[in-house]
Specification:
The complex is a heterodimer of chains A (about 250) and B (about 425). Chain A has a single domain, classed as Rossmann fold, CATH 3.40.50. Chain A contains eight helices and twelve strands. Chain A has helices at about 40-50, 70-75, 95-110, 115-130, 150-160, 180-190, 230-240, 240-250; strands at about 1-10, 15-25, 30-35, 55-60, 65, 80-85, 90-95, 140, 165-170, 195-200, 215-220, 225-230. A six-stranded mixed β-sheet of chain A has the order 6-9-10-3-11-12, with helices on both faces. Chain A has a four-stranded antiparallel β-sheet with strand order 2-1-4-5. Chain B is an alpha/beta fold and about 425 residues long. Chain B has a ten-stranded mixed β-sheet, with helices on one face. The relative contact order of chain B is 0.09. The chains are: A alpha/beta (about 250), B alpha/beta (about 425).
Chain lengths: ~250, ~425
């Protein structure tokens, strides 16, 4: 589904990603871990198409197609979804209206007519229920005044609505208490299928108890320095990142 | 001959058309003298530092259109808020169009200034109110000198006018350049409530200059909501001089939506002459090309325990320019005043500009006054957030602009006006969002 080959990326002439190789197949869950500043969020943003990041070298293929030149919205239309570490507040636009616009613009890009209003309403209701989101919440301005947990739950709600092929969850566990974490993880697990894939970016192993990865990759200084199964996450939790840094430097 | 000279000499011709024996004519003559002495304002005047009338004054305007013009409703329907029942006062090239209007004398007066100025039954009202709120600045004086036609609205006490009143001025382009000077008088008596919508619309690319004066009197506990829709053609310019005098416990609001025209200057003045008055001044400006919109507001707090709320949002693209000059004056007697002012702007291009200048003059010592102005760009992180959800750049921008304007749109009390404004903005931005905000 996603193939990243020798990806180098920079922001304002500062090299951040220095040769990433990664392959994600349908049905898989990959975890990307690593210390602060290793390039985890940059990788997520580059895949999603943030313009400030310059791809210097390498390529990102989605289902065999190079998406380097595509705008963020075109990548979204092709099924990439990024759950933000810090969701942006947009006063004056309700959650519902935002979702309607996002869904209908995606349908438009695929040559489909707008989703009928009653169908949309039904879908919104179902997905909100799944994530235990109060109906009143949906008419509030997007992310404005939401608690950290509400923002993250809202991100997963949007993911549920958009049904992406590839979901990237960037530090979705930060700012979540244990109950919210469970709700969010359950939501992600319900959305998982053999046809889609998830990349979980996290600093801690905690979330991976709920969303169990098939592969764990450790990112350090812009490169994937170690890959393994889910047991690698436990090892990292126990020993921290220093031994990896030492291994790399040796 | 420059425009000032032309206007001065036209005044003599004007005197042949009106009753020079009427008391109001003394007011006109006096005003003409003021204009003759002062002429048009220039950038040397502090209040006009950022707005130059030069490009507007250079045309050879007809002051009295020669030909009568007619318009068919179906051709201009889109300029009305046509999906609600309303009274209508319609002018074509400055002349009243009875064919397009719907006036009334049934319990309230919704009719013409020309009638009010000439018929004896209106004499006392005219004596009490005409030119009693307008200031004696040169442009208002110029309008006063030529005051003859416009809307006259009188709501006697304890009346809630059940449908809004629309005042529309069309210019047909029959004259190669046309100057219009409508004069409106609106008196809302005790406990009454009225909603008014005003629009100036040119139908061709011929230059039009409108110098309008509207005097509004809201008496005890009266409520008036006034909406100005400014979305005119590229060669149309508007100088709007509006004066609102409020008596105790009255509520007055003016919303100004500025999306078009070459040059638009809104001189909006509120005078609070009683206690527990509420004044609201709000505006959304979205312009591009070389358009210019200038909001020049004054709220004069004269008595204690009153409130004023000002909220102006501006979005400027291309080489457009904006001005916000908001003055709040709190007299020594006006204790417990609560005055709020905000002016937020977004510049979409490096060539667009806004000059914003809050002016607070406070002589009372127990007041709450706040003001704030911001100038910024569209939030890049919000743009990426929306685009990553599949919303294309243009639509994402539009959504952010709507969000930015939402505070002002939200306080519009007539849903059809809000829908219309939303549509005008969506058209202007070239998007179809599929829902109303």
């Amino acid at each position: 589904m996603l193939k990243i080959k020798d990806l180098h990326a920079s922001v304002e002439d500062k090299a951040i990603l220095k040769g990433i190789n990664l392959e994600v197949k349908p049905g898989e869950v990959h975890a990307i871990m690593g210390p602060n500043g290793s390039g985890k969020s940059t990788l997520a943003s580059v895949i999603a198409g943030k313009e400030e990041y310059e791809v210097e070298q390498g390529e990102i293929l989605l289902e065999g197609e190079n998406i380097d030149e595509l705008a963020a919205e075109e990548r979204a239309h092709k099924g990439i979804f990024l759950s933000f570490q810090y969701p942006v507040e947009i006063p004056g636009v309700s959650v519902t209206n935002f979702m309607k616009t996002a869904i209908n613009e995606t349908r438009k890009a695929k040559g489909l007519a707008d989703m009928p209003a009653n169908e949309m309403l039904k879908m919104i209701r179902e997905k909100a229920e799944m994530l235990e989101i109060d109906r009143k919440f949906l008419s509030r301005s997007l992310n404005q005044g939401f608690s950290g947990g509400e923002k993250k739950r809202n991100e997963i709600f949007q993911m549920a609505m958009l049904e992406p092929k590839l979901a990237i969850l960037d530090e979705t566990d930060s700012g979540l208490d244990i109950d919210a974490l469970r709700i969010v993880a359950n939501g992600v697990n319900k959305l998982k299928s053999k046809d889609n894939a998830v990349i979980v970016i996290t600093h801690y192993q905690r979330l991976l108890d709920y969303i169990v990865p098939d592969f764990v990759h450790v990112l350090h200084n812009g490169r994937i320095v170690k890959s393994g199964g889910k047991e690698l996450a436990h090892e990292l939790e126990e020993k921290g990142y220093d031994w990896i840094k030492e291994e790399v430097n040796a | 001959m420059d425009l000032k000279d032309k206007l001065v000499s036209s005044f003599m011709a004007f005197e042949d058309l009106v009753d020079v024996e009427a008391a109001v004519h003394d007011v006109r003559s006096e005003a003409m003298k003021t204009f003759e002495n002062e002429g048009f304002p220039s950038k040397r005047d502090e209040a006009w530092k950022y707005t130059s009338l030069n490009s507007v004054l250079k045309h050879d305007y007809s002051v009295f259109p020669k030909k009568e013009s007619a318009l068919e409703y179906r051709d201009i329907k889109k300029y009305f808020i046509h999906d609600i029942d309303s009274y209508k006062i319609v002018f074509i090239d400055g002349k009243y169009s009875s064919h397009l209007s719907q006036t009334t004398h049934d319990g309230i007066d919704v009719c013409l200034m020309s009638a009010a100025l000439s018929k004896p039954k209106y004499r006392i009202l005219i004596e009490n109110y005409f030119n009693k709120a307008a200031t004696k600045d040169s442009l208002s004086s110029l309008n006063t000198a030529f005051s003859q036609e416009g809307a006259y609205i009188h709501i006697p006490k304890n009346k809630v006018v059940e449908k809004p009143i629309q005042i529309l001025h069309f210019s047909t382009g029959n004259e190669s350049a046309l100057m219009l000077q409508p004069r409106n008088l609106i008196v809302v008596d005790e406990n009454s409530h009225v909603q008014i919508i005003e629009r100036h619309q040119s139908l061709t690319e011929n230059p039009v200059l409108t110098n309008s004066v509207t005097e509004i009197f809201t008496n005890k506990r009266a409520i008036i909501d006034y909406y100005k829709i400014q979305n005119d053609k590229q060669n149309a310019s508007l100088i709007d001089n509006t004066f609102v005098k409020q008596k105790r416990e009255s509520h007055a609001s003016v919303h100004t939506f500025s999306f078009g025209g070459q040059l638009t200057r809104n001189n909006l003045n509120f005078y609070q002459e009683g206690e527990r008055i509420d004044s609201t001044l709000k505006g959304v400006t979205i312009i591009g090309d070389k358009q210019h919109v200038d909001h020049n507001t004054l709220v004069h707090h004269i008595e204690p325990n009153c409130e004023s709320h000002q909220d102006y949002k501006g979005i400027f693209a291309d080489k457009s320019t904006g001005v916000f000059n908001g003055k709040v004056l709190v007299d020594k007697e006006a204790q417990k005043t609560n005055a709020f002012q905000a002016n937020n702007n977004i510049l979409l291009s490096d060539s667009a500009s806004i000059n914003t200048k809050p002016q607070l003059e406070i002589f009372a010592d127990d007041v709450k006054c706040s003001h704030g102005c911001t100038i910024g760009q569209l939030d890049e992180s919000a743009m990426f957030y929306m685009r990553s959800r599949g919303i294309p750049e243009k639509e994402a921008k539009a959504l952010l602009m709507f969000a930015f304007s939402n505070n002002v749109l939200d306080s519009v009390k007539i849903p059809e006006i809000k829908q219309r404004i939303t549509k005008i903005i969506a058209n202007k931005l070239g998007v179809n969002l599929g829902f109303d905000l």
